[in-house]
Amino acid sequence: MKEKALFFDRFILQVKRSDKSINAIEKELGYPRNSLNNYKNGGEPSGSRLIEIAEYFKVSPEFLIGRPRNSTVAEEISILPEEYFKQLRESQKKELILVVTKWIIDEFILDEK
């Protein structure tokens, strides 16, 4: 629960720094109204939404969830895909499966038509 509260605290910090309202940010990102405000109640963003929010504020996803960036990209790439997958939470695994499935359809199935 600590990470979830930390995410919302850091999210609000970025909102204040932007001098915009949460609703204005939701509109710019194309999110439904109050979808970002729901994280106040302990909700946690999906992996793809976390990345979108981080990119919007020009911060790292790790910053938003309160994890230190102690590994380099080379170290992260060197992890076997199976090991990386095992480290994910169930919700992250489902999100990754959806992203990969969409990519496969877009790249291989739709390109053949």
From TrEMBL:
Sequence ranges assigned to domain HTH cro/C1-type in this UniProt record: 27-64
Pfam families reported in the protein's UniProt record: HTH_3
GO molecular function: DNA binding
PROSITE patterns on file: HTH_CROC1
Entry-linked CDD domains: HTH_XRE
Protein name: Helix-turn-helix domain-containing protein
